[in-house]
Amino acid sequence: MKDVVITYCKPCGYLKHAQAAAEAINEKLGVGARLVPGKGGIFQIAVDGQVVAKRTSAGFPKEDDVVAALQEALS
């Protein structure tokens, strides 16, 4: 099974975004994601160490984009 990890900036208050992404991944793909606290503004979702979605200057990745990226990475 592939390792899905959501790394989020704890001091920035990104936990709620990480939890929402993990819930969407679980509901739509049936895959559990590990939440890992970080710092420095990080918010990224990785599969087996490869980043498939991340926060950019435009904001957080949309739920549908995260699910689509994970579907591709998991196939």
From TrEMBL:
Domain of life according to the entry: Bacteria
Stored Pfam families: Rdx (PF10262)
Keywords tagged on the record: Redox-active center
Record flagged with keyword Ribonucleoprotein: no
InterPro entries linked to this entry: Selenoprotein_Rdx-typ, Thioredoxin-like_sf
Keyword Transport listed: no
Protein name in the entry: SelT/SelW/SelH family protein
Species assigned in the record: Rhizocola hellebori
